Every structure is written in structure tokens, then in C-alpha cells.
Amino acid sequence: MTARERIAGNVANYVDERTGAAKWMKKNLTKVFPDHWSFLLGEIALYSFIILLLSGTFLTFWFDPSQREVIYEGNYEPLEGLKMSAAYASTLHISFEVRGGLLMRQIHHWAALIFMAAIVVHLMRVYFTGAFRKPREFNWIIGVGLLTLGIVEGFLGYSLPDDLLSGTGIRIAEAIIQALPVVGSYLAFFAFGGAFPGEAFIPRIYTVHVLLLPGAFLALITVHLMLVWYQKHTQYPGPGRTEKNVVGYPLLPVYMAKAGGFFFIVFGVTAFLGAVASINPIWLYGPYTPGQISAGSQPDWYMGWLDGLVRMSPPLETHAFGHTISWNILIPGLIVPGILFTGMALYPFIESWITGDKREHHLLDRPRNAPNRTALGVMSLTFMLVALINGGNDIIATTFHLTINQIMWFSRIAIFVLPPIAFVITKRLCLSLQRADRELVLHGRETGRLVMMPHGEFVEVHEPISAEKAWLLTQHEQNPALALEEHDSSGVRRPKALKNKLRARMSKAHAVAVPKATAEDLKQIEHH
Amino acid sequence: MSNEIETIKDPGLPAHVHRRTDTDPKAAQRAERQVAILFLLSALGTVLLIGSYIFIPQDIFIFFPVLGNTNAHQLFLGLGMAFSLFFIGMGAIHWAKTLMPDEEVVIQRHEFRSPDEDRADFVKAAKDGAAAAGLGRRSLIKRTLGLALGLAGLSPIILLRDLGPLPGDELSKTSWKAGTRLVTDPGDRPIRAEDLEVGAVAQTLPELAAGGHRTLADIGKDAVLLIRLRPEEFNLDAERLSWTHEGIIAFSKICSHMGCAVALYEQQTKHLLCPCHQSTFDVTRAAKVIFGPAARPLPQLAITVDSEGYLVAQNPFNEPVGPSFWERSS
């Protein structure tokens, strides 16, 4: 036994005698993780969060979260002698005087954008492959919660420097609070410590940004990962992969090396962006004052869809009995997002209600094999995309020499028309892909080789596909629609029949499929 | 499709194919060297980071194609950091992919549902616990506990009361009074009608009393935009026309939609546009909304001139400025 082994053994013994960790470690160090590039998306989100914690901590050492008025006397000459908040002045100090300060600011901002993008793409992966199905509904809801918190956290973060652009964003947030019926003005005055902008808001959101929300993130991410760990990861279908097993690489050493290495790659790429790609150059915007604004005011991308909805809203306000309700703010700013996010959180339960499927699922769906779900997802994305495009309508107008009116009217119509069209097209595409899969299994791969038959006819030679490929294309279940009787056995109409009717119709739509190729189909073809 | 139909069979996990590094010791040695080189590149990155931090002054700018004029200190510091991190990751992954075992392992899943006995035991334990505490029988305790918890839950709301003052009529008031002079922002100079040419725009604020102080909250309500047109260009009723002076018209600069500064004036069309949500107001028709989500015109400030010829407010605003709120009556 070498000296090193003896020391390691002693340490392990010391820890195990006090915690009994060896049993747990033995089991978990050999835990198997399936491998697929799309499983890296969630990892990117996790690693970006760690980068955010590290770079954010660096920034707190110099940032002064105060709206106290100061006169700027720093290195950046164009703003010399200007009145501004201490928050803005300290952000300038970080950018121009602290070595590595600007780099860390840019890394922090890039990491936030990557964090949000990774969450959204990860969510899309989970949705389109059906990974949210039983038993993973809790993790889906936690994920929707993390996405929502991420939007808030990002907004608060880029509001902290108190520059002209972010101050305008806070002004809009204040208007949304103020628009709430009955309690709006009160909530706004409590949040801002008086009339907008006051001197209380930046210090308050600083606490929320660096303490409350990161704490909530840590708690939710911990539960999210513990559930992934405990429930074991889902896997894509393929030869030898079943609902009952996990095929992949053990945690030690392969998975640990890959995942750990990937953290450094994500951090390295973020640092590279921070080094070469300027982001949020607050010194160009100037300090915030409510009387000024810069043209082309844009939120960060994950808020853009919300801004786009507000922009396309018609000018609706109700004035009655001495009160005002601003539908032009409430509908796009609160009601529609509320419906979207609630619907998203509840989707696993809605789908299982429609299909009547209460079984556990660990094998992922290929999106084409769940046409209704895939179409619904593309429909929602189309809605968000139209909203996002309208959120940049001023930039699009100046870039492409269009008028704001044209883009706004396009968006107002497209937000209703395009999502249903996207649904229909996606569903058709999925079914066509199913048909192509069936063809491929039954008739083989087109080789591109043309052969002239003795009687002069040209035919293309098809080659049978491998057994592995054939299995991949046919392993999925095709379940019939729910058979819901409108009347019970004695002919009495069941209560809630309308609900049943709706369920039956949706179930039918959900079950639409091109019959997959079977061994019998293959045999029949061979006989011909 | 029901299960009776014979489906295509699962051929099972494909046989493992060895990599070159598994069979050829030379390839393995080569891979080892590659991993080492990647780790060395990372080390060089850290050297670049430390060197840039110490030796490159913060005020040197270098021109790079694509990037433009770039601060050398920030750029090389960042590149050093990027290389130092990135190549650690590349090395680790290359190591895992070429030299660590790549044979896929199969483990079995366990069912999450607890065995029926355990479930029954759990229900029994929970019931016994509740019974032992007497929750079912002692309804007095249950109800008073509910009351106590409910009231205790209220205390955060009470304790947060001092977050801010009650709004009162703050949202409906501005600093403008009859006779308040309009002064330039910035500069705080009073304005004569002849200071503004036709077509010109000026951002103004109410004049401060001597020794007075102006907060951002004041600016957020008081900011007023002056625009001078030819008087015949107005399309106003008699009252609103009397609120103008020699073609000069004054509007609140705070958008009636969400409170952004309505700062874009199109001289040709005489439209005011809010850059936040593109609400567009027609200056000639008392800032009527002609496009976008805003539901109300910008409030107009009645102006005239005082005895010295300086522009002053005739009256305070006759309605609240800025975005709507519940207590607003029109």
C-alpha cells in the first residue's frame, strides 16, 4: 500500500465512521447516465447559474445599490460632472476603474442570457420528447417555476445599474403595478417607497436580486436535481433500451469527467463572449431621469415577447364610476402571460387526462410520434415568436425600412392567425414523417441505384434497413383513442357528458397516427 | 394498434466496438499527449490572464477587424480567462472520450410506488399520529390553532406597511400652478415665445422657488414638452386653442400609456411618438392618439405669458399625468 493510498483510506474511514457515507457513495458512484447531446441543455442552464453566482459575487464587492445622488468624477470623461445615482456611478467605476470589472459585468450579463436561453431550449426538449410525463410532473412544474423566476431575476439584474435604458424598464414595470385594479396605486407606492422613481427601489431589488431569488433558485435547483438523480434520467428509444432499464455511462469516471469538463467549456465560452462581445454598455445610455429616453428602447430577449404583446395591444381602457381599468396593460401584461404560464405548468396533467395514460414513462417520444403535442408546442412557439418580433418592431422598422404601423398590424393579425396554421402544418408534417418511417421499414432505403429490367422498365434498388434502425422506427406505442361512453350501460346520459365529449374529441385528435410497420406487414410484403 | 399484432423485434444492445485507443497502445499514448497539450494550453491562458492584469494598462485601445476599437486590457484579460477555462474542459472531455472506458452499462430502474404494506403502514402511522394528538376530537384546539396561525400569517403584511406612504392624491398632482414659469431642462432658463422657432421643440420643467430642490419623482410628473407650430396648423376647439400661445402648445411629456418619456417628435407629420410602445399622438389635434396602445391623449398644459413676456402655466393640469391607475376618474 502506498502512502497516498493509506492517507486516502484513513480519510475515507474517518468520514464513513461518522456518516455511513460509503454505502451511499458505493451505490451512486456507479450510477448510470444516458448520453445524448440534448441532455446537455439543462447542464448549460445549471453551469450558467454557477457562473452567475461567481461573477455576481465579484460585482457586489464594488456595486453600491443606492439611489443617493452623486456627482460623477471617474475616468469616463463624457459623463464627468453629471448628477447620477450612486448605483450608476459605481457601475461606471466597475466598468472603467476596477481591473476585470467590465469583463465580469459582461460575463455576468452574457451568462444571464445563456441561462435563460438554456432554460427555454431545455424546456422545449423536455416538452417535445414527452419527458414531463409521469413520474416527472413535479420536475416540470419546478422547471416552469425556475423559468418564471429567471425572467424576474434577469429583469431585476439589468435594472440595478440605474441607467437610462433600465430605468425606462422599471418605469414600465411600475405602470403595470399601478394598473392593477383597486390595489394598484397602493402597491406601487409601497414598492417604490412613494412616487416613482423615489430612492428606495434599487436598494430593495438589490436584496431581492442577490439574496431572495438566488436562494429560491438554489432550493428549487437542488430539488430539481435530486429528483433527476432519484428518478434516474429518461433515455431516447433504441435497441436494448426499455422502460425498465437505463443504458449509459457510469458517473465515475466518464460522466463526471464529461460533465465537469463541460462546466469549464461553458464558463470558457461565456468568458470569451465577455471578452470580445460588448453587452449593455451603460455608459452610452447615461443616468436615468424620467424626463428622457433613448430611441430603440429594448428589453433583454426573454422579456421581449411581453413587451411585444403590450405594443400590439389595442388602446382599450374602461372609465366607469370614477375608476379606470387599463385593459391595454392588464391583458398583455398580466392576463395573457398568466394564462400561458398556468397552461404550461398544467400541461402534463392535461395530456394525461386526454390520453387516460397513468403509467410511468422513461423512454422518450420521438416528436413525430406525438403529433398533437408537437403541433401544440410549435403553435405556442409561433405565438411567442410573433410577440417577440413585435417587441422589436422599432428596430425591424428602421433596419428593413418598414413602417411601425405595418409591423404592428402584421403582428395584431398574425398573433391570431399564424399559431393555428402552425398547428395544422406541424401535425401534417409529423404524420408525413410517420408515413416515411413506415415506408422505410417496409420498403427499405433508396440507394439511388437505377436498374433496367429486361422489359425496359427502370426501377430503383431499395436496400433493407438494419434491424436496429427498424426497431427505432417501430418501437413506439400507438394507443387508440379513449372510448368514452356518452351513456352508461342502462342508457342514462352521464353527468358531465359535455366534459366527456370534449375529452373524447381531444383524445381522438391525440391518437391520430399512421399505423406503424409491423412484422406482419413485412411478412406480407415478402410473400408478394 | 393492439398488442396481438406481431411487432418488429428489439435486436438488443449493439455489440461494443473498440476504439483505436483501446487496442493500439500508440494511439492511447497519442491521446494522452493530446490531453496534456490541452491542459498546457489552459495553463498558458492563465499566464496570459495574470500578465494582462499586471502589465497591460487600462487605457490602451487596439483596433481589431470585426471588434473595432477594443480595450486591450479587458480583451486580453478575458481571452486569458476564456482559454484557461475552456481548455481544462476540452482536456477533460478528450480524456473521457479517448481513454476512459466507453462501454455502455445497463442498470435496472426501480418502481417508485411503495409496496402496499408500506403504504398501509404509512396511512396507519399518520392516522395514529393524528389520533394521538387528538386532532379529530379536540376541535377547540384545532380551531384556535387555525385562528392563531391565520393571524400570525397576517403579521408580515402589517410589518411591511412602512414600505411606503399611502398614495393619497399624489398621482393626480404635479408642481404646475397658475403662473408657474416654464424653464428649460437642462439649464433652468425661463423661455420667451420668440425663443422658439416654428417647428422647434423644447423640454421644460416648472421653475423652482429659490433654494428649492427637484427630485426625479418631480421630473417624472412635471416634464412638459413645448412645440411651436404655425397657429393655423392647429385643429383644436376654442378652449384648447386658448391654452396655446402664438402657436406654442404644451403637453405632458410622460406617456399616458406606461409613463415613458414621449420624446420623438416628427416635424413633418407633427406627430409625437413614444419610443417604448410606439403610441403616436397628433400634436395638431391636442395629442389625440392616432396609433399604438395608449388609450388617452397626452394631458395639455394651458400656457400664456406673464408681464415680463415669459411663458407660464395658465392653470395646473386639469387631469392626472402619466399612466392610468384605479382611482383615476376619466
Query: Distance N terminus to C terminus of chain A?
Result: 71 Å
Order of strands, main sheet of chain B, comes to 4-5-6-7-12
What would you report as the Rg of chain A, rounded to the nearest angstrom? 29 Å
| Secondary-structure element pattern of chain B, one letter each | HHEEHEHHEEHEHEEEEEEEE
Describe the global form of chain A: globular
- Could you tell me the strand content of chain B as a percent range? 15-25%
Distance between the termini of chain B: 64 Å
Instruction: Specify the CATH class of the domain at 171-313 in chain B.
Output: Mainly Beta
Q: Which overall shape of chain B is indicated by the principal axes computed on the Cα atoms?
A: extended
Mean pLDDT over the residues of chain B? 92
Instruction: Tell me the total number of β-strands of chain B.
Output: 14
Report the CATH architecture of the domain at 171-313 in chain B: 3-layer Sandwich
State the name of the first-level CATH class of the largest domain in chain A: Mainly Alpha
CATH fold descriptor of the largest domain in chain A: Cytochrome Bc1 Complex, Chain C
- How many whole angstroms does the radius of gyration of chain B measure? 37 Å
- Assess the beta-strand content of chain A as a share of residues: 5-15%
- Which sequence of SSEs, written as H and E, runs from N to C of chain A? HHEHEEHHHHHHEHHHEEHHHHEEHHH
The CATH superfamily of the largest domain in chain A is identified as Cytochrome Bc1 Complex, Chain C
